[in-house]
Amino acid sequence: MTTIQTDVAIIGAGTAGLAAYRAVVAAGKRAVIIEGGPYGTTCARVGCMPSKLLIAAAEAAHEARHTSAFGVHIDGEIRIDGREVMARVRGERDRFVGFVVRSVENIPEADRIRGYATFVNDNELKIDDGTTVRAGRVVIATGSSPAVPPTFSVFGDRLIVNDDVFAWDDLPASVAVFGPGVIGLELGQALSRLGVRVRVFGKGGSVGPLTDPAIRAYAEQAFNQEFSLDTDARITDMQRDGDEAVISFVDAATGNTLTERFAYVLAATGRTPNVAKLGLANTSVTLDMRGVPVFDAETLQCGTAPIFLAGDANNILPLLHEAADEGRLAGENAATWPQVKAISRRAPLGVVFSDPQIAMVGKRHADLDEGTYVTGEVSFEDQGRSRVMLKHRGLMHVYADVESGRFLGAEWIGPRAENIAHLLAWSYQQGLTITEMLAMPFYHPVVEEGLRTALRDADARLVQARVKLAA
């Protein structure tokens, strides 16, 4: 049996793991990176990139159907070839994965270990091929997997997760989606626009990551104009019948119980960290009720052990740029342990690539203390450039601190939210006030003028709030 000695062992060759490896090497220490599954990050293989490829096809189909309002008429039926759609999704996805695989394969072969690792103790790992890795420190960067409620097992092979969608050769006739979060909304709407009959079931009234009640209500109404979305569904029965999933539910509009059949059920019901098979019980770390190590969110260290938890495996902010930042810090701290430093996080930023897009920047509405902030609002329904493009569905709220006038955050649904979100994230990270933001240039005519309207509304409300406080 082989024994490998190293300064740092990194479990997982995804975004966080690769960043950790590079950080350790840059610090002049030896690192090995261990991966049992296929190379290629979650983002490239089954996440960000393939989902955007499917969304791009859906947008093309949607635009082709909605040209007549501009006086542009397309004669004949818009035909969607599901096999061609999925062939492009898989082909381009494989290109993106290839870039990642090549970057991993550029790592010296002696530093790459293929296999699944389990802890023997804090400093020793056993690989499933019998190899022993002895490391001064360990970084866990094993990512996460879709979490599926046990009750969904009734659907058998009619049950899928987002990973499975990108393996399809063709588009199915119908899909029931459970979970109107980021994944459920993006895939649900894309499939609907590609001609798939879609019904999305939610729980508790949530729509994506939104916490502002007014924005959430607007989003629910907007999406229901395209496909059926029940954000607090009452399911009365679920079963499998032949090659179909059969779901009975109470119709939100009529109160009647309906039964519908679907080719597939897509469980978009959250994700769980991939830590169950790591043998963490053999270490000195404390585990929470989910079996995930208790760790310091600032240093990513698990208790006092020489073990660090980074990326989706810690489930703080499951986003690619956050995973890269965490991986880098975990690698740096592992290289310098027992001296560790805290992470310097970027401005909170999230985007849902639906249409209209959803975005959140800075503090969420749910994080704000009543009476300490004002809300500036804009509707995109009458915003000039938005109406020109017939992309005028949307509502935005920006939040400002009453005392300082500083921009606190925003939640909204609207056109080109992915672009506006970056402007706001930069403003938040620089600590700008509403007044300072309004002093920035706004070209005409652009969608960003809608943001200016919201900022002006916030500015006026700040004046009112201060007058009220002074009275």
TrEMBL record:
Residue ranges of domain Pyridine nucleotide-disulphide oxidoreductase dimerisation in the record: 351-454
Residue ranges of every copy of the FAD/NAD(P)-binding domain listed in the record: 7-327
Co-factor(s): FAD
Residue ranges of the TM segments: none
Gene: pdhD
Keyword Flavoprotein applies: yes
Protein name as it appears in the record: Dihydrolipoyl dehydrogenase
GO MF term set: dihydrolipoyl dehydrogenase (NADH) activity
Record-stated family: Belongs to the class-I pyridine nucleotide-disulfide oxidoreductase family.
Major enzyme class: oxidoreductase
Pfam family, one: Pyr_redox_dim
The UniProt record lists the keyword Flavoprotein: yes
Keyword field: FAD, Flavoprotein, Oxidoreductase
E.C. code: 1.8.1.4
